Amino acid sequence: MPLRLALYQPDIPQNTGTILRLCACMGVPADIIEPAGFPVSDRAFRRAGMDYLDQVAIERHVSWTQFDAWRRGRGCRLVLATTKGATPYTDFAFAPGDAILLGRESAGVPDAVHEAADARVVIPMRPDLRSLNIAVSAAMILGEALRQTGGFPPKAPEGPN
Ligand SMILES: C[S@@+](CC[C@H](N)C(=O)[O-])C[C@H]1O[C@@H](n2cnc3c(N)ncnc32)[C@H](O)[C@@H]1O
Predict the structure, then answer these.
(1) Which of 78, 79, 132 to mutate to test the pocket of ligand 1 (most atoms within 8 A of CB)?
(2) What strand order describes the sheet that includes 99-102?
(3) Which domains does the chain have, with CATH numbers?
(4) At 137, is the secondary structure helix, strand, or coil?
(5) 106 is in an annotated binding site
(6) Which residue has the CA at smallest separation from atom 1 of ligand 1?
(7) 115-125, pLDDT tens digit by residue?
(8) pTM higher than the cut 0.80
(9) What ipTM was predicted for this assembly?
(10) Which amino acids bring their CB within 6 angstroms of ligand 1?
């Protein structure tokens, strides 16, 4: 099973677009947990010029409860990226099939979601700063998870520039 990136009620469309492009390029499915702060239909993404849309497998979930039941049914571990009290992401052993969950830009995730996660990972930062941008966090953690699980797409053959 591939790794997955899940977005909890995203509220900034540009960040979601950046993360979906990351998913497309890495061959990683994306989960969008609604409600989002903007329309998340294929039509809305196309209207916003999301040109990688056909290259990413997106699952939309109507609620947190539905997503949580769905991922448990698949035996999918939930790894929450959070600034609050967690294992440094480079010390965590990722496994194929893990869903890496990113919190909403404005408020992270509620306590119930924090507690439901199987693991919580943090990107260590200087203590006097609040948080990283969500798309930067997604790229750093997904990169480490792909490295550990041998999940990067195969290198394209060399061709003319
Ligand atoms: C802009 S941050 C949310 C900030 C929010 N005010 C909070 O208190 O969680 C959006 C998401 O990016 C991820 N994130 C940002 N910085 C992170 C860090 N240093 N370690 C792990 N995840 C981080 C988390 O998933 C977070 O919920």
Answers:
(1) 132
(2) 58-61, 30-33, 4-8, 99-102, 78-81, 119-122, 87-88
(3) 4-149 (3.40.1280.10)
(4) helix
(5) no
(6) 105
(7) 999 999 999 99
(8) yes
(9) 0.96
(10) 81-83, 102-103, 105, 107-108, 122-123, 125, 131-132, 134, 137
